[in-house]
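In this section we walk through a basic example: taking a raw amino acid sequence and producing a predicted 3D structure, encoded as discrete structure tokens. The instruction is simple. Fold the sequence below.
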Amino acid sequence: MKLGMIDYGRGNLRSVINACRALGHDPTLVTTPEGLDGLTHLIFPGQGAFGDCMDSLNRLGLADPLRGWIEAGKPYFGICVGFQLLFESSEECPGTDGLGVFKGHVKRFTSYDIKIPHMGWNAVDLKKLNSPFWEGFEGEPYFYFVHSYYPDGVDPEVVTANCTYGQETFCAGIERGGLLAVQYHPEKSQHAGLQLLGNFLKT
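The resulting token sequence is shown next.
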């Protein structure tokens, strides 16, 4: 296997690289469409605003090749913004189109009784425990979140995890074929995060 990581100039690369190295894999940074050649697995680490990240992908010529990679069913792991960009649009950046791989719109938390951003550990309710991505998991594992937005209107068939914060229950992860994308940060989630990354890298 050959692991690649999208480098759009804004992601939290170092923490994700260190997590991959702890699992015995040293990812190649991808900054051009040609950088995808020969890869078997791809990680999109998340940090930054929806619009800025899409602008960077378009500027680097990576948006269309990334859609092609996903539509071909190749292994893809999206983290935080790498999850949100899979949808059509976001309240964070009106007028900016996402990758549009999945139906849905990214919205901001609306509850008044919670701190925004949602930051810290929270349990997730797993919906597809028979999936190879969730091998070794049971119950409601805890992961580390840092976000103010989440996808809304997601097809229930692809939802793999939900999370409740305050009065809002939101989609915290999706999967389809070789694709796994989550709102939380596995690279900051200690054992559970490494377990999830390791499961992805075995697909």
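Looking at the output, two observations stand out. Helices lie at 13-22, 50-59, 63-71, 81-84, 190-201. The first helix runs from residue 13 to 22. In the next section we compare this with other chains.
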